[in-house]
Design brief:
By secondary structure, the chain is of the alpha+beta class. The N terminus is likely disordered. The protein has 6 domains: about 110 residues; about 110 residues, Beta-Lactamase (2-Layer Sandwich); about 100 residues, Beta-Lactamase, CATH 3.30.450; about 45 residues; about 100 residues; about 150 residues, Histidine kinase-like ATPase, C-terminal domain (Heat Shock Protein 90). The chain has 15 helices and 18 strands. It is elongated.
């Protein structure tokens, strides 16, 4: 047996299994211990790094707060001075207006225009100016007199007018000599975007005028100072290094890069930056920072590619949010920078594992050789088919499990040899019995076929006798006609002999007339026409006898024919010729042929199947309906790629308890002596060997339908 050879599956031998077990038992603990230690060191390094990064982040958060508090202190001081100055200017303008109207001035005329020009020329800071609004909220004095007469609500398309309407209405409710300070966004015509503006507003109730002095925040001296201080802080952040390559970065809440590595990407919009896994890094960090408690740093890990780098590196950062300036401050470092120290530990673990693998392999190899040597001897004996070869005595004399295994193996060989001898004798007996069974089966099939033909012999003889009787009768008539025909011919043959005795034309006419009269007396003309009609009838009768005999020869021969393309409808017609005497007095045959394609089968054997089924159908109708004729329907069609033949009768049907047994050998419902019970069994076996199937459906009292399913010849 080839599967017992030592070289068949070497890696499944005990030697290799022992080697694998030793390697696993020695190497696995070392690997697990080394991995645990490495992960412990890595967690410790990551924890310490995260703590240090958080401390640095908190330090820069504190520095930002210090810078911001310094800027706020300066801004508050200048705010106070600006408000005081704007209040003074607004009150001075109000006094000028009051004095003008108290001295009898009117709202029209050159004097009023000179007053307005003087007010418009007042300079407040770099871009500040004074303005006056009347009761209809239209400018009386605007910046540079460019918008006089225009509603204050119509000058700012980017700022809702309702913001100014509330301010104007509130200012009109102020007390005399009261000045109110307002801060609001305002966009000059020549400015690209709105800017924050501060105005001191007082109300002159007598003329319903709002008098104001205004100034933009960008005109503050401390405004530029704030930008300078922020830039100084950003520069300090950009110059601090974290580890070997780490740095401080700052995002705005909108996703702009405020501080980048070496300031190369400052001002860049990075909100939609994705890492190699498709994660929106900046958006996620900013979103988490806005939700995180202010002043409490959190740790985040991400992939990032800086300017000048060829790929994204894994980084870790401590992030803190400064709500005052809207800064997201991150202290980032490259993970590979602070994990370099772990590489030495990893190398040591690998070296130790390799050392244990080599030692374990050496030990396991020699241990496996020692254990597997007697087993290989047993294997060598088992691989030889000759069971007379003895087993090595050293294997049998061993006092361990292998020795007991050898003894059991020797006993098994002895018992196996005896069983093999028994099986060989049994096999020879089975071969002999099988040959006898096949021979008996062939004889039984042929006997059943001949029995069926014998059953039909009387009917076939009757079918042959009818055309033969007709032929014999016509042959007698033909003999009579031939005799008369000879007499007439003899009379006409005598005319040349008697012509020498004719003396004149009248003698010749009389002699010919006498011969013609005899032909009329023998009905020569009718004989001639009867002979012409008789020959085709004789030919048809003899052809019918010939067809019946040939069909009988077709279905009675024993020789095995090969499968071929067979016209099923033609076979059905041949079978009907044979069994017609069995059917014609019992049932009417209805043909519903579907012009199906040819089936792949044996015409002689499938014909035998149809004979059995048609005879059974005729007998079922005879038993179920008495003298009343029934109907046998022959139907051909194609279904699911197979040629199907239905043989349907209106007989007595099959009882439900017998449906499962109708194809069993020797099962029959006919009286004793009228059936062997082999017809359907043999038919089922024939169709199965042809690659088909037989299905049956029946309802007691209404009839039975047998369906023969055969493969198509054009699909094989």
């Amino acid at each position: 047996m080839s599967f017992l050879k030592p070289s068949a599956r070497p890696f499944f031998s005990i030697r290799w299994k022992l080697l694998l077990v030793c390697l696993v038992c020695v190497t696995l603990p070392a690997i697990v211990l080394g991995t645990v230690n490495y992960n412990t060191y890595r967690r410790e390094v990551m924890t310490n790094t995260a703590r240090d990064l958080k401390l640095v982040a908190l330090g820069w958060k504190t520095a930002t707060e210090i810078y911001r508090s310094q800027v706020d202190r300066i801004m508050r001081r200048e705010q106070y001075l600006v408000e005081k100055r704007l209040t003074s200017v607004a009150l001075d303008i109000k006094k000028m207006v009051e004095l003008y109207f108290e001295m009898g001035g009117k709202r029209e005329g050159p004097d009023f225009e000179r007053l307005l020009n003087k007010i418009a020329s007042i300079e407040i800071g770099r871009n500040g100016y004074a303005f006056i609004v009347d009761g209809e909220s239209k400018y009386v004095v605007s910046k540079n007199r460019k918008h006089d007469g225009v509603s204050i609500y119509d000058l700012n398309s980017k700022v809702p007018a309702s913001n100014y309407r509330v301010m104007v209405e509130d200012a009109r409710r102020s007390f005399p000599d009261e000045v109110k300070i307002y801060q609001y966004p305002w966009q000059d015509i020549d400015a690209p975007e709105p800017r924050m503006k501060i105005s001191a507003v007082t109300y002159y109730a007598k003329e319903n005028l709002l008098i104001a002095a205004s100034m933009f925040y960008t005109d503050y001296k401390s405004y530029e100072l704030e930008a300078t201080i922020k830039e100084e802080l950003k520069d300090r952040m950009a110059h601090q290094k974290i580890g070997e390559r780490g740095y401080i970065w700052v995002f705005s809440a909108e996703g702009d890069m405020l501080v980048s590595k070496d300031r190369f990407r400052d001002g860049e919009r990075v909100i939609d930056t994705q890492d190699k896994y498709g994660r929106y890094v900046v958006k996620d960090i900013i979103g988490q920072a806005l939700k995180w408690p202010e002043g409490d740093p959190f740790i985040t890990e991400y992939f990032w590619q800086e300017f000048g780098e060829t790929k994204q590196y894994e980084k870790i950062a401590a992030v803190v949010y400064d709500r005052g300036w809207g800064w997201v401050i991150g202290v980032g470092a490259y993970e590979e920078d602070f994990l370099k120290g772990l590489e030495a530990i990893r190398r040591h673990i690998v070296q130790i594992c390799l050392l244990f693998i080599m030692a374990g392999s050496f030990l396991a190899y020699f241990l496996a050789l020692f254990i597997s040597r007697p087993l290989r001897k047993l294997e060598a004996v088992a691989a030889v088919s000759d069971m007379s070869i003895p087993i090595d005595p050293q294997v049998l004399s061993a006092n361990d499990e292998i020795g007991r295994l050898g003894g059991a193996f020797a006993l098994m060989r002895k018992n196996l040899y005896e069983k093999i001898q028994e099986l060989e004798h049994s096999r020879l007996d089975l071969v002999k019995k099988n040959e006898e069974l096949q021979k008996a089966q062939g004889q039984l099939v042929q006997s059943e076929k001949l029995a069926a033909i014998g059953q039909l012999a009387a009917g076939v003889a009757h079918e042959i006798n009818n055309p033969l009787a007709y032929v014999m009768s016509n042959m007698e008539t033909l003999e009579l006609y031939i005799n008369r025909y000879e007499q007439i011919v003899l009379e006409y043959e005598k005319l040349p002999v008697r012509k020498d005795a004719w003396e004149n034309l009248d003698d010749a006419r009389m002699d010919v007339t006498a011969a013609f009269k005899k032909s009329q007396e023998n009905q020569f003309e009718r004989i001639r026409w009867d002979l012409k009609a008789m020959v085709p009838d004789l030919r048809d009768g003899l052809n019918r006898v010939r067809r019946i005999v040939m069909d009988l020869r077709t279905f009675a021969r024993v020789e095995q024919e090969p499968k071929s393309a067979v016209d099923i409808e033609e076979v059905l017609e041949q079978v009907l010729t044979i069994v017609w005497n069995e059917i014609k007095y019992k049932a009417q045959v209805v043909r519903e042929y579907g012009r199906v394609p040819k089936a792949l089968c044996q015409s002689q054997r499938i014909g035998q199947v149809f004979i059995n089924m048609l005879v059974n159908a005729a007998q079922a109708i005879s038993q179920g309906q008495g003298e009343e004729p029934g109907v046998i329907t022959l139907r051909t069609y194609v279904k699911e790629g197979y040629v199907c033949v239905d043989i349907q009768d209106t007989g007595k049907g099959i009882q439900r308890e017998n449906m499962a047994k109708i194809f069993e050998p020797f099962f029959t419902t006919k009286p004793v002596g009228q059936g062997t019970g082999l017809g359907l069994s043999i038919s089922y076996e024939i169709v199965s060997k042809l690659g088909g199937d037989i299905c049956v459906s029946s309802e007691p009292g209404k009839g039975t339908t047998f369906t023969v399913v055969l493969p198509r010849a054009d699909q094989t």
